[in-house]
Write a structure and sequence with these properties.
Strand content: under 5%
Shape: elongated
Radius of gyration: 35 Å
Structural class: mainly alpha
Oligomer: single chain
Number of strands: 4
């Protein structure tokens, strides 16, 4: 008897709420402006969000859909139709562009099996490939092709003819018959017949006077200035690289900021909003599911690490910091020893590679000593760093950062040491220079080509190291692991286990390749083309090795942060590459027997640009001289610093406002929860009173 009044009261309250919701919905619909072209969409949105039953929504829909549609004006109808068609066209173009996207299917396969962090490496490699393609187009169009077309028209200058002839006589161009082995050695070293090709800067000529041309009645020389083209193209390549890196980094930072703003709801968003309901292919659905799984695993691992760090005791922290200090001192000692070995080997190679009393094969080995030693050190020392960083107990993400930082310092510093060793060989006191502007002791008549040869050999050695790692280390190790552990029960095979894809090591490998390109392109213009071809091959080699030999990492990483850090490492590498190249261009006198800058007597390579500016109109020359002076750079630097301070202050203020708004949202949520609780209590009290009245009436 007592349950029936309660049921009737509940039904009455429910119907009352339905009537209130329906009345509120009708009120909102009646206040929609019918003159707006999207009035129907607004009505549909109001009905969809109404807090009422589905049956009432259907009734409201049928009731208001019977209203005759308002006839739009021709302009509004055309605007609405054009907007819809334009949106459809953009979606169709976007879908079509995805069909032609390079390596799209390969990236999906990698992402599905190994997660977003591993695929970020391949995306980074793809970006570097296109960067080198753009650089190659500039080099071929502005430097190589003009040399090939106009080279025969160059007339040697009387001031450098003797030096040019002396340098040409030292180059062995014979590559026939029994000289086949020598030709192979020359190809590997970049010497001999290779030295007199467009591969190296020493082959390029100063300028080409093609014929006389008349402009406005004045007869002038029609020439293509190779030295100026060389300098401006190199500067343009560095500017293009910096702009592309800045654009990539800004987009990555925006994505990372968007993901970090979602930190309070990341699990909810990934679980309930992470699925793509447009997927129709089972393979794509499987890849998407695995990708979500890896993202959740990464987030949970970070939460676990943060909780573990928060629960450390003082003695645990003291022990950990002591271990880290000792290991960092060991790292510095290893780096110092590696730099001394590179310096010693480079000096030994330069002093002994051109001796006449050694056999050609031994001379080849000696000439490759710096490249081989640098490559071996770059392969062994990062493995030691990788073992040491595990003892320092960092988070997986920070472990990548530390390993990348140490390894990139090793690789870039090794190249700087190489530059310094070459600098000691090509420079000497004034009295030791001869009339062709090279040191008698070293015998390096064309130092520009000598530097280009070193980077050419480094590029070949680096690519050979990639092939050795993939085909001689990874595939045999995987085969031994599978066959030995399964059939032969070999203990060492079981102890080695399956390999994981080491993101820091592989990222540093392609960053190092790009560093060789940036440092050496001025001295060896074909390095960008070689780097592009090398990256193209590395993509397929790494993909094959990844799918065949690797297992998913047990330490998941955040792809968004990794992508940003990859680019930060690349930007640091870029800045460090500019310094030695700029030093050689600004401070060292060019050779008199080679290179397009051979006519610069008592000047440097940079003098070519200043002399060209002096030939221009006096006003333009003064403008460019002012742009290159301290009177322009110092106010510019001060202005940029003030601008940076302003935007930093604005950013800090905006972050503070964001924090306040977040706190306000939390307080509003608590207020709503409190009000809803009070309303529920009042409703329950009201229902209780009605139940008591109904009970007494029945009594």
């Amino acid at each position: 008897m007592s349950a029936q009044p309660h049921s009737y009261a509940s039904e009455g309250s429910h119907h009352e709420q339905e009537r209130h919701a329906e009345a509120a919905t009708k009120y909102k619909i009646d206040h929609v402006d019918d003159d707006e072209f999207d009035a129907d969409l607004q009505i549909d949105d109001i009905i969809r969000n109404a807090p009422t039953s589905l049956q009432n929504k259907k009734t409201l829909k049928s009731q208001y859909s019977k209203k005759p549609p308002k006839q739009l004006s021709y302009y509004k109808a055309f605007k609405y139709s054009a907007g819809i068609k334009w949106s459809q066209f953009k979606f169709q173009v976007h879908d079509l562009s995805l069909q032609f996207e390079v390596w799209r299917s390969s990236l999906k396969v990698v992402e599905g099996k190994f997660g977003t962090a591993v695929v970020s490496y391949f995306i980074f490699l793809k970006w570097l490939l296109f960067l080198n393609i753009y650089i190659t187009v500039l080099v071929l169009g502005l430097m190589v092709v003009p040399q090939i077309i106009l080279g025969p028209k160059y007339i040697p200058n009387t001031g450098t003819e003797v030096c040019e002839k002396g340098y040409d006589d030292t180059v062995n161009r014979v590559c026939l018959g029994e000289k086949g082995a020598t030709c192979i050695v020359d190809f590997l070293e970049g010497s001999g017949w290779m030295e007199q090709t467009v591969l190296f800067v020493g082959y390029y000529s100063p300028y080409y006077v093609t014929d006389k041309a008349t402009y406005d009645g004045t007869e002038v020389d029609n020439k293509y200035d190779i030295p100026l083209a060389y300098l401006l193209t190199t500067a343009g390549i560095f500017i293009l690289s910096f702009l592309m890196m800045s654009n990539y980094t800004s987009k990555a930072l925006q994505d990372n900021l968007a993901s970090s703003e979602d930190s309070y709801y990341k699990y909810c968003s990934k679980v309930f909003c992470g699925w793509d309901y447009l997927l129709t292919d089972s393979n794509s659905a499987s890849f998407k599911k695995r990708g979500i799984h890896y993202e959740l695993t990464s987030d949970l691992a970070e939460e676990s690490r943060a909780l573990e760090r928060a629960n450390r005791t003082i003695w645990q922290k003291l022990k950990l910091y002591t271990i880290r200090i000792i290991l960092n001192l060991i790292v510095l000692a290893i780096l110092g020893g590696a730099f001394w070995v590179i310096f010693y080997v480079t000096d030994f190679s330069i002093e002994n590679s051109n001796r006449d009393d050694i056999i050609p094969f031994l001379g080849l080995v000696i000439s490759f000593l710096p490249s081989v030693v640098i490559t071996i050190l770059n392969g062994i020392i990062p493995v030691i760093f990788n073992i040491m960083v595990r003892l320092e107990d960092y988070s997986p993400q920070f472990e990548i950062f530390v390993t990348l930082g140490r390894t990139v310092f090793l690789r870039l510093a090794s190249l700087v040491i190489l530059f310094f060793s070459l600098y000691r060989q090509i420079t000497c006191d004034e009295e030791e220079y001869n009339e062709c502007r090279y040191c008698n002791d070293s015998g390096v008549q064309c130092w520009e080509t000598a530097i280009g040869q070193e980077f050419y050999k480094l590029a070949l050695t680096d690519f050979a190291a990639v092939l050795v790692v993939v085909f001689i280390v990874e595939f045999p190790r995987n085969l031994m692991c599978r066959l030995g552990a399964k059939y032969l029960k070999i203990g060492i095979a079981q102890s080695l286990g399956e390999m994981e894809f080491e993101i820091p090591k592989n990222v540093l490998a392609i960053v190092y390749s790009q560093a060789l390109c940036w440092m050496g392109l001025f001295f060896c213009p074909f390095l960008p083309l070689m780097t592009a071809a090398k990256l193209f091959i590395i993509f397929y080699l790494k993909k094959l090795s990844l799918l065949s030999n690797m297992m998913p990492s047990q330490k998941p990483f955040r792809a968004s942060r990794s992508g940003i850090f990859f680019m930060v490492i690349l930007i640091i590498t870029f800045l460090m590459c500019i310094l030695p190249v700029g030093f050689f261009i600004i401070n060292i006198e060019p050779s008199a027997g080679c290179s397009p800058f051979r006519l610069q007597d008592n000047g440097t390579i940079w003098t070519e640009l200043s002399e060209t500016l002096e030939e221009w109109d006096s006003f333009m020359a003064e403008v460019f001289q002012f742009l290159g002076s301290a009177a322009f750079y110092i106010p510019l630097i001060i202005f940029l610093l003030l601008l940076l301070y302003y935007y930093t202050a604005v950013g800090s203020a905006q972050l503070g406002m964001i924090g306040l708004l977040k706190e306000q949202l939390v307080m509003e949520g608590r207020d709503k929860h409190f009000l809803l609780t009070r309303i529920d209590e009042l409703i329950q009290a009201d229902l209780g009173g009605k139940q008591q009245k109904s009970f007494f009436r029945q009594r």
